[in-house]
Amino acid sequence: MANSTTEKSKASAVTVSAMSVLAPAIGWFIPGAGHMIQKRWIRGVLLFISIVALFLLGLAMQGRIYKANGGDILDILGFVGDVGAGALYILTLAMDWGQGAIAFATADYGTKFLIVAGLLNFIAVADAYHIAIGKKQ
Amino acid sequence: MTIILNHFSAALVFSIFASIVFGITHKETTRDMVRYGLYCFGLFLGGVLLAGWAMWVLKR
Q1: Which residues of A touch B22 (CB under 8 A)?
Q2: How far apart are alpha carbons A23 and A132 in whole angstroms?
Q3: Per-residue confidence at A1, pLDDT binned at 50, 70, 90?
Q4: In this complex, do B3 and A57 lie within 8 Å of one another by their Cβ atoms?
Q5: Element (H or E) spanning B22, and its range?
Q6: In degrees rounded to 5, what are phi and psi of residue A99?
Q7: In angstroms, what separates the C-alpha of A73 from chain B's closest C-alpha?
Q8: Which chain B residues are closer than 8 Å to A50 by Cβ?
Q9: CB contact under 8 A, B3 and A61
Q10: How confident is the model at residue A128 (pLDDT cuts 50, 70, 90)?
Q11: Are B58 and B25 in contact (CB under 8 A)?
Q12: Yes or no, beta carbons of B17 and A43 under 8 Å apart
């Protein structure tokens, strides 16, 4: 009796651990996907739309993407924000987008949109993790 | 493709999407998520208007 209860709680602990790693990882890579794989479809779709829209608007406004090449502290912070967007960031680097354009006054807004999209995705990843560990419904 | 938004439009768009994410990630029930999202949106927009008027006063 006691053994089967212990085995069940060990099994559920293993299940929670796998999702607690997978959900944040996939949520970082694709915004909102960490929620979708845990069957929070509406939340996941809304997060996806919001974060991707902010990122794409940032690119369309000729914002600048930061790279991991050190430099001053603000460049490093910009990189940390940008990398939060996951696959969007990787795709942007691969396609050589996000060069920035000083000529456009709103390019500065675009740069901030790109950073904030990444930071919001970090928040979404944390939320997906909390759902995975049962801290949140 | 280049999109040029004016200052207020950029702030509005930012507020909408940030409020959606905040509402979803900070609350548990759907009702609380919607209420908190609207609250955040109001704070964002109110802050933008307040900051704008404050800058106008300073410029005077």
Answers
A1: 123
A2: 7
A3: low
A4: yes
A5: helix B7-26
A6: -80, -20
A7: 25
A8: 17-18, 20-21
A9: yes
A10: very high
A11: no
A12: no
Type of residue at A101 = A
Can you tell me the distance from the alpha carbon of A47 to that of A26, in angstroms, rounded to the nearest whole number?
13
Q: How far from the centroid of its chain's Cα atoms is residue A10's Cα?
A: 30
Is the pLDDT assigned to residue A115 strictly greater than 80? yes
What SS3 class is residue A99? Answer: strand
Nearest CA in chain B to A136: B28
- Report the candidate in A100, A104, A94, A102 with the shortest Cα–Cα distance to residue A59: A100
d(CA A45, CA A52): 10
User: pLDDT per residue over A48-94, tens digit each?
Assistant: 999 999 999 999 999 999 998 867 898 999 999 999 999 999 999 99
Find the mean pLDDT for residues A99-127: 90
Reported as a single tens digit per residue, the pLDDT across B27-56 is 999 999 999 999 999 999 999 999 999 999
Residue A42 corresponds to which tokens in the numbers above?
């509406």
